[in-house]
Amino acid sequence: MFLDRDGTLNVDTGYVAHPEDVRLCAGAAEGLRRLAAAGFLLVVVSNQSGIARGLLEPAQADAVDARVAELLHEHGVELTASYRCPHLPDGSRPEFARECDCRKPRPGLLLRAAADLGIDLRASWAVGDALRDAQAGLAAGCRAVLVDAEATAVPSASGAGLDDLPAGVYRAHDLVGAAEIILTHS
Ligand SMILES: [Mg+2]
Ligand SMILES: [Zn+2]
């Protein structure tokens, strides 16, 4: 399964650039433990346009990735792999300023990871705190869970009108709720 990073695994402080700033989201480790126990690979797929914007270096994004993995490891969770889109069409760094197939809501990161790791997209899920995370999942052929701290603590299927979410997208309060949805519907 595919996990957004900032705002989903770790608290999104805005273009997270420093490993010492990384804090796990409430419920992240517990939710991921349940999903790993059910056999899901845990693959991070992250838009990092701060690189194209000149706000952080790729090495800083690597360091933040490593810190997220380290904190989860301390809680008994092993991430499988991490994929990143550093692009933005109007970014300030020419080497990253372009249209690409990997900036979510496009599915390129998920498709690449699935090919690398042998993931069955139809049986997989995308989880993130932004609609574009869910959209990337749907575009890749997955189902999706939108993690939304404003959402009711009781996981609810979407499509009932109020949420105005695309079919195949569920909403949960945190990653524990997301895990409950995924394990119920898989
Ligand atoms: Mg996010
Ligand atoms: Zn990209």
Task: Give a short synopsis of this structure.
With 186 residues, this protein is an alpha/beta fold. The chain has one domain (2-185): 3-Layer(aba) Sandwich (Rossmann fold).
CATH topology: Rossmann fold
CATH-derived architecture: 3-Layer(aba) Sandwich
H and E string? EHEHHEHEHEEEH
Taken as a percent bin, the fraction of beta residues is 5-15%
Biggest sheet record: 7 strands, mixed
How many whole angstroms does the radius of gyration measure? Answer: 15 Å
Q: How many discrete structural domains?
A: 1
Stretches where pLDDT is under 50 for at least 5 consecutive residues are 158-162
CATH fourth-tier homologous superfamily: HAD superfamily/HAD-like
Numbering strands along the chain, what is their spatial order in the largest sheet?
Answer: 3-2-1-4-5-7-6
CATH class: Alpha Beta
How many helices does DSSP assign?
Answer: 6
Shape: globular
